[in-house]
Amino acid sequence: MKKSTWWIVGVVVVVVIILVISGTTRSTETGPIKIGMITPLSGNVVALGELMKQVTDIAVSEVNDAGGVNGRPLSILYEDDQCTPAKSVSAVQKLIDIDKVKIVIGSSCSGSVLSVLPITDKDKVFLISGSATSPALNNKSQMFVRTIANDDTEGLVLAEMAISKGWKKIGFLQENSDYALGLYNAFTKNYPESVGTIIHEEYPESTTDFRSVLTKIRAAKPDALFIAPQSPATSQRILTNLAQLKWVVPLMADHVVSGAWTIKHILKHNMTLCIFCAMDW
Hey, which residues does 144 pair with through a beta bridge? Predict the structure, then answer.
């Protein structure tokens, strides 16, 4: 199994441990143990949701094939939230009120997790995420845990890399989302004005053509370009537009910008450098 999928399996393992410790699997109870999962199974971030579902299915199958938890099989109830807070709230309310789950995995995006936490807290439902990285979630609730480092760590590593390269001017293209904003704030905190200048441009999630904003950043002549999209689909559009503009510039990126397509695209268009120093390959 690829390293980049182990964190998803880790979520399921943590859930199993919680079930055993919490006494959810008392011998007097029978039937499947229901666990809710909120993830984007459609929309702009569907690639992440599909990966999470596939690997979760594999992990749950392995647990069930080994006898389940105290003899009871796990049953995952999936809800599609498209990584949007409103849909995430509806999804978690359905899982709690109708399906009566006591543990929810998700959501995949920080903004959605921040939106559902008040609900899960109120109903004493344990929430666990393997991909929500916003620092705003730090110490947010005793009923919430995540199995991934937050943006403070990623921003620090990327800032240190930029400084080590001697880059004095960074173009920063950031999606208007809690995740990307958290990463931007973490990067700027560790790349102060005394070190260099940041040319910051923010775009809405609905953006499909980035040539105009990229041209604007290019005019400032940055030493490197940092792209912080919310989804793999958006990262592909940005890289495609970079190639169309024939702009050859060192790239930094968040962990969303990954996969074979990205590598093939960079090689095909002879992009100078791509630094994914905070990414788990």
Answer: 127
Beta bridge mates, 104: 36, 127
The CATH code belonging to domain 3-146 is 3.40.50.2300
**What is the pTM (predicted TM-score) of this model?**
0.70
Superfamily of domain 151-275: Response regulator (3.40.50.2300)
Residues near 247 by beta carbon (within 8 Å), at least 6 away in sequence: 214, 218
Q: Is beta strand 197-203 parallel, antiparallel or unpaired with respect to 169-175?
A: parallel
Count of CA atoms in the C-beta half-sphere (13 A) of 77: 18
Nearest to 52 by CA among 91, 20, 14, 4: 4
Where does CATH 3.40.50.2300 sit in the chain? Answer: 3-146, 151-275
Cα(201)–Cα(212) distance, integer angstroms:
11
Count CA atoms closer than 13 A to 247's CA, side-chain side: 26
Query: For 217-269, how does the pLDDT look when each residue is reduced to its tens digit (9 = 90+)?
Result: 999 999 999 999 988 788 888 988 988 998 988 888 877 775 544 555 555 55
Q: What confidence tens digit (pLDDT) does each residue in 73-113 have?
A: 999 999 999 999 999 999 999 999 999 999 999 888 888 99
